[in-house]
């Protein structure tokens, strides 16, 4: 049987992990997940089962327990080395032990070790974690349960190899364990629908006002791919708050983090549809060219490779840059190189030169060493009046994640960083970490999603006016104080939400109300989001909000410049143990000391296999159909914002679709290029189009027919061609508006300068020629 490149063949011995069951609880913009892993030792000797698995960056694990022979064994938090010593002592004494720890180099990898599992015995291990959810462009909340963990490349000077280098990998479909998943969702504005890349049961509402619902995977499945849920609320922009009651125990008393109520505020501001965009900036694109970028970016081996997807996106970004900016492109792997010694002005000649170089890019640079190119970029002086914007495209398979994030953080004052994780298995810790460190945004492109709309969304963010003066103010009854636990964001972009946490200290009158106000300045206008809420806290045994608040506080300590000091380490350990959440300095440890007798026999180590997307792919696959859970009795649903990954019959676009004036010939047997991208490829740097045979061919006319229908005899050929191109894109390329919106905006600015304040007659003539009915206002004229 053919196996994917780089995967380990299946062992003929039984694997202890038999099944995974997951319960998901979504509250507004956060999720609480409880995963149960069922192990069974079917061998004749006791085994040590080791399962290295991915959890999305930003998650915090707050519970780890095991059920053995009907007895629950609850783990406790200990300092990392102490937990390891406890585990080693237990298994050497013949006791059952359970250890859960975060990888030292990357916060999105965990190792679960089960020591001394006796022959023929089952053990159910439960892991619970919480995280904040990502919001998509169309307002959907995105929850991903990662299944795929790609081996992380470790730089040559690293002290030890990545923990992922020892994991056995098997081809997709041969994972020897199944997955069950159910989800409960709550939001005060009501739940509209839920979509997934897996088959779901119909969405079942638990309340008449549709503020609570549940959904499940329709059947058990092999856990060989990420499971994704897209959750849509009726009013996602409406501010909301959850006030969670604390607990009263010996260690959690009034005045402590776990003893006091914690408020979680969710703000997702609405921005104007039309925003004035910056026409300056230095745009640097850093593209992963390591060997792993030759892997398929989709679940199908025949789909486009990761490097192809990055090239397609890069070409479109080059076409969309504003006139007057500067740019450069870096490729990195075991070494790195840049297109230009330093950033160059965005001219027609420089763009054509860059497009020529982009076409020749391949995944041929060996390993994944991103630190050195970052240092080279930061060593170059920034240009006055040209704010630096860094775009990073990578599959995120690096072993020195924390070093890379720290390098970006050190230089955060001189730039913003926008990151893109390509393919399943991309390190969420790296992709989210570098964006967060430099006040940018991040995107993940998995399965058969189109990267272009997400990349253009980030470019729009980079060109947006800056939100300034963000502050959070409280109006509380006398005797009550709000202590903010999370930092107020430095910057906010269109399409971003902000979650803030505060501890309420003092006397709480549950019959009273309070007011929280988020205030910021946007385009010289002061905007306020006010939220009036009851001071009666909700009881939640899972303490979701408290655990998230503790995670935010620990992250701030770990991100500080003093994080390596003994004082900061002590603070992290104390907070981790007080809140019961894992950190980089602590681990969960549980020991079953109630065995009738020590486990006898030689201890066998068994690594649990994971799925990995791998292998070089050729050609392009149709996009995968997203399954959905709609309201009962609704048969089908198609999301406009998700249309790129929903349509089975759309043609995929090859990596040569934007060659422009460079006239790079397409390779033999290349997929048919859609007319919309042929037209985009002809646009010049200033936003205009030439009137020539190529333009005429795309819009289905001859060059002479276009000239014969010009508004006047001596009318400007280039102006006429540009107006026709803009009308054509609105009329026939509306499906790809997210991808051409910026470059058409550039064209409209150019038209206004050339045509004057009243181009209406020209638009009318263009509609008559193209037999369309695009309104002048729709174009922006």
From TrEMBL:
PROSITE patterns: VIT, VWFA. InterPro entries: VIT, VWF_A, vWFA_dom_sf. It comes from the Eukaryota. Residues 1-131 form the VIT domain. Residues 282-463 form the VWFA domain. SMART domains: VIT, VWA. This is von Willebrand factor A domain containing 5A. It comes from Latimeria chalumnae (Coelacanth).
């Amino acid at each position: 049987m053919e196996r994917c490149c780089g995967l380990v063949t299946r062992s003929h011995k039984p694997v202890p992990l038999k099944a995974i069951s997951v319960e998901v609880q979504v509250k507004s913009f956060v999720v609480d997940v409880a995963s149960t892993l069922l192990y069974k030792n079917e061998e004749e000797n006791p085994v040590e089962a080791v399962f290295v698995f991915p959890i999305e960056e930003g998650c915090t694990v707050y519970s780890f327990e095991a059920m053995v022979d009907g007895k629950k064994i609850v783990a406790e938090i200990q300092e990392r080395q102490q937990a390891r010593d406890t585990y080693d002592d237990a298994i050497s004494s013949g006791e059952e032990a359970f250890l859960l720890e975060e990888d030292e180099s990357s916060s999105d990898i965990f190792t679960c070790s089960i020591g001394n599992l006796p022959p023929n015995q089952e053990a159910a291990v439960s892991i619970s974690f919480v995280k904040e959810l990502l919001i998509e462009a169309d307002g959907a909340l995105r929850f991903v349960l990662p299944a795929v963990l790609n081996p992380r490349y470790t730089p040559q000077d690293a002290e030890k190899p990545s923990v992922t280098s020892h994991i056995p990998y098997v081809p997709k479909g041969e994972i020897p364990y199944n997955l069950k998943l159910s989800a409960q969702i709550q939001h005060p504005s009501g739940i509209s629908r839920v979509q997934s890349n897996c088959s779901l049961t119909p969405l079942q509402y638990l309340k008449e006002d549709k503020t609570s619902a549940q959904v499940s995977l329709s059947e058990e499945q092999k856990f060989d791919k990420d499971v994704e849920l897209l959750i849509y609320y009726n009013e996602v922009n409406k501010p909301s708050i959850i006030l969670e009651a604390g607990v009263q125990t010996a260690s959690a008393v009034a005045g402590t983090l776990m003893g006091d109520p914690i408020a979680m505020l969710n703000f997702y501001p609405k921005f104007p549809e039309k925003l004035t965009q910056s026409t300056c900036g230095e745009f640097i694109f850093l593209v992963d060219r390591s060997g792993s970028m030759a892997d398929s970016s989709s679940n199908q081996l025949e789909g486009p490779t990761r490097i192809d997807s990055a090239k397609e996106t890069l070409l479109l970004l080059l076409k969309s840059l504003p006139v007057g900016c500067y740019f450069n492109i870096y490729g990195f792997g075991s070494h790195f190189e840049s297109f230009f010694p330093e950033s160059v002005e965005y001219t027609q000649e420089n763009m054509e030169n860059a497009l020529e170089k982009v076409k020749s890019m391949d995944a041929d640079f060996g390993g994944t060493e991103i630190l050195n190119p970052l240092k080279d970029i930061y060593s170059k002086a920034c240009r006055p009046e040209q704010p630096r914007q860094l775009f990073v495209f990578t599959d995120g398979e690096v072993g020195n994640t924390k070093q890379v994030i720290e390098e970006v953080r050190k230089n955060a004052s001189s730039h913003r960083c926008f990151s893109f994780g390509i393919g399943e298995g991309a390190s969420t810790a790296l992709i989210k970490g570098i964006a967060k460190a430099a006040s940018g945004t991040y995107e993940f492109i998995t399965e058969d999603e189109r990267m272009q709309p997400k990349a253009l969304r980030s470019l729009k963010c980079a060109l947006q006016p800056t939100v300034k003066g963000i502050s959070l103010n409280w109006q509380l009854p006398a005797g009550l104080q709000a202590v903010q636990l999370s930092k107020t964001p430095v910057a906010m972009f269109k399409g971003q939400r902000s979650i803030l946490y505060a501890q309420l200290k003092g006397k709480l009158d549950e019959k009273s109300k309070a007011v929280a106000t988020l205030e910021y300045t946007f385009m010289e206008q002061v905007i306020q989001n006010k939220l009036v809420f009851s001071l009666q806290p909700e009881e939640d045994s899972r303490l979701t909000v408290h655990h998230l608040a503790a995670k935010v506080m620990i992250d701030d300590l770990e991100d500080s410049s003093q994080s390596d000091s003994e004082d900061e380490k002590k603070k992290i350990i104390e907070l981790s143990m007080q809140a019961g959440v894992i950190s980089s300095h602590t681990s969960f440890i549980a020991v079953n000391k109630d065995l009738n007798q020590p486990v006898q026999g030689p201890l066998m180590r068994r690594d649990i296999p994971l799925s990995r997307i791998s292998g070089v792919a050729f050609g392009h696959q149709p996009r995968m159909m997203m399954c959905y859970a709609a309201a009962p009795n609704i048969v089908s649903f198609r999301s406009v914002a998700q249309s790129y990954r929903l349509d089975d019959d759309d043609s995929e676009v090859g990596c040569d679709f934007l060659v422009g004036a460079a006239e790079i010939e397409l390779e033999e047997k290349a997929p048919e290029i859609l007319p919309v991208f042929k037209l985009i490829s002809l646009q010049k740097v200033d936003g205009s189009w030439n009137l020539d045979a190529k333009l005429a061919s795309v819009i289905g006319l001859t060059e002479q027919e276009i000239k014969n229908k010009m508004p006047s005899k001596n009318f400007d050929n280039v102006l006429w061609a540009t107006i026709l191109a803009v009308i054509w894109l609105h009329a026939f390329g509306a499906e790809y508006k997210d991808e051409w919106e910026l470059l058409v905006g550039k064209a409209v600015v150019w038209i206004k300068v050339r045509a004057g304040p009243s181009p209406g007659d020209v638009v009318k003539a263009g509609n008559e020629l193209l037999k369309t009915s695009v309104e002048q206002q729709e174009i922006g004229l």
